[in-house]
Amino acid sequence: MTFENPGYFLLLLLLIPYVLWYFLLKKKHEGTLTVATAESFRKAPSTWRTRMIHLPFFLHVLLYSLVVIILARPQTNFSWRTNETEGIDIMMAMDISTSMLTQDIMPNRISAAKDVAISFISNRKNDNIGLTLFGGEAFTQCPLTTDHSMLLRSFKGADCGLQAEGIIQSGTAIGMGIASAVAHLEHSQSKSKVIILLTDGANNTGDISPLMAADMAKNCGIRVYTILLGSDGRVNVPVAQLPNGEVYNTQMDASANPSVLKQIAQTTGGIFYRATSRSSLRDVYNDIDKLEKTKLKINNYDRRHEAYQPFAIAALVILLLEVLLRYTWLRKLP
Length: 334
Prior knowledge:
Helix content: 25-40%
Order of helices and strands: EHHHHEEEHEEHHHEHEEEHEHEEH
CATH architecture of the largest domain: 3-Layer(aba) Sandwich
Strand content: 15-25%
CATH superfamily of the largest domain: von Willebrand factor, type A domain
CATH topology of the largest domain: Rossmann fold
Largest sheet: 6 strands, mixed
Radius of gyration: 37 Å
Number of helices: 12
Number of strands: 13
Structural class: alpha/beta
């Protein structure tokens, strides 16, 4: 709490002569009553009324002090502030090509990838994290943010329907996915910048090759962790979706190219991972979770708010109490 007019506190110095007057001089100016003897009064029992004889004085002092505080205009100290917190900048690049609907990892690859990634995000509350999606082309689903509630909503909305419905072109553009993520991280002030690339296939389209995108990431000081998701050998791959919503699958050999993903990771100082099940994918993210952290600066804005109301209410209550006591319980004879 701060005070807009702290100079008013100098008025509290006036309490010093008031206190001295009350205890040293007031009795000399009060009316007196002459009696033959005070012996009977000396033996009179003490009552609450006699014990509380100085209560009005203390109420006057407290009331005056509260009025001075109100004049000083107390305010809550809201303003721009910068907090430092531990974290890194992470762009997650996820493959949403139709092959991610393959059910070798139940219920399918894309659902398992989203579930494990959401759990990973929930455990890294201080990180700036964003999401890039790619199929035959790449786009930003969510920019870098510490607002993880918004990020999680973006993750839940990521699916393979965009490619299945022809909204984005077919294919897997790994290079474009990396380049899109690099564009968000290249101006980051964080000392630790990371891309987590998850795909189940090989690059087969796009204007930027995976190795060219890896060089871009390296030049920007970005590490790329590559994850190849899916089983080896022949798998049931979805190739078409019928008008009734049913997905048509066919047996095909896995089209992944792990050597390119390994080279991407090696070029940028990252690590290549292979995940063939939900549990192994979770182990991959747990390993990435051990990344070094660096300090992030987060700006928060609060506004200033007048806070005199509690003091005004207390002053009003004390004033009413003092008046009530003066004319009832502690009333004095003229």
